[in-house]
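Notes from hallway chat w/ T.B., transcribed later so I don't forget. T.B. wanted the structure written out for a chain they're using in a teaching module, and asked if we could keep both sequence and structure tokens in one place. Agreed to drop them here.
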Amino acid sequence: MPQLCPELTTKLESLKQLKQGFDLEIIKAQSLSHNKSEDLVSVREAKIRLEQKLEQISKILWQEFYVNSPRGLTAVEKKINYHVIETLEGHANAVFTLQVLPDGRIVSGSGDKTIKIWQPDSRGNYKNTKTLKECIGVVRILQVLPDGRIVSGSDDKTIKIWQLDRRGNYKNTQTLKGHADSISTLQVLPDSRIVSGSDDKTIKIWQSDSKGNYKNTQTLEGHTGSVFTLQVLPDGRIVSGSDDNTIKIWQPDSQGNYINTKTLEGHIGSVRTLQVLPDDRIVSGSGDNTIKIWQPDSQGNYKNIQTLEGYLMGVRTLQVLPDGRIVSGSYDNTIKIWEPDSRGKYQNIQTLKGHADYVFTLQVLPDGRIVSGSRDDTIKIWDGDKVE
């Protein structure tokens, strides 16, 4: 395993110290709760200390996670005239989902029930170095936890967590069960809780206990169709898109339980994909062949301010670049890049053709390259000319 750089080592030691303090506070709180003459003031103080340490740990994890996620990228090179520079072959079925690890490796999930990890060689060409074969269903969605573990969702109704062992191999360390149908989408909250959306029309929140094992702590109901897509706003609110053609925003109440506070209507087809712009506007892609941009007013109510048209079939996947450009993939086999003009209105500036079937998933690399996965069983990497 490569040595961590000094900066990350320092942060890791800081995190370990916080964790040790957190564990000590738990022991103190437990001893108080078993004392018949317990002092309520002491219990409350212990609870406050617990919450403070949890907040410290969460902030460090979220900062490290966020800067390595597509939305956390702050310096992606701007490029134009994109073209295919590499096609990755190896999956025996559609590539449904992609993620990028902090070290630049690509992770893909497929209809062939495998997860593949692709690592760049000395010339920058990606090679399949690991294949995870413990899934018993189609791998429909992937996410990455702040500590680097991979999370996968499958049509076998389960969520799996994969962790590196000492030999550098990923092993399935936990399987989460609770959904009654396929897992369609996953997200990670700032405090490392996992959020899942399913064809069973529900959203579940999973929280890890003191041993690191995830348990379902809340189930959100309200959608009347499959939950296809999830995003998390910077303030921790959850945004969901569904086969019922709506977008819902879920906000935690004073007890930390999420409740549906807003429902956005406007699409006339299923909402297949969501992203968040750098200024916190929401972008949605739909089976109605359009992309909509939603902006909050002074009271926090989201309104559809622009609808992007140009696709012949539904919009399946979206990504957002730090400069505000939108990248979208469709069932018409193409990828489009959208850029705001001087008035802030988005225009299609390029259409990328190369896939022979539906474009299911997109990711963006820090150097500006775009990665796409398709029902043609391939992953394509697109590069362009750098804009000086």
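Follow-up for T.B.: The chain has two domains: 6-67, 77-386. Might be a good example for the class.
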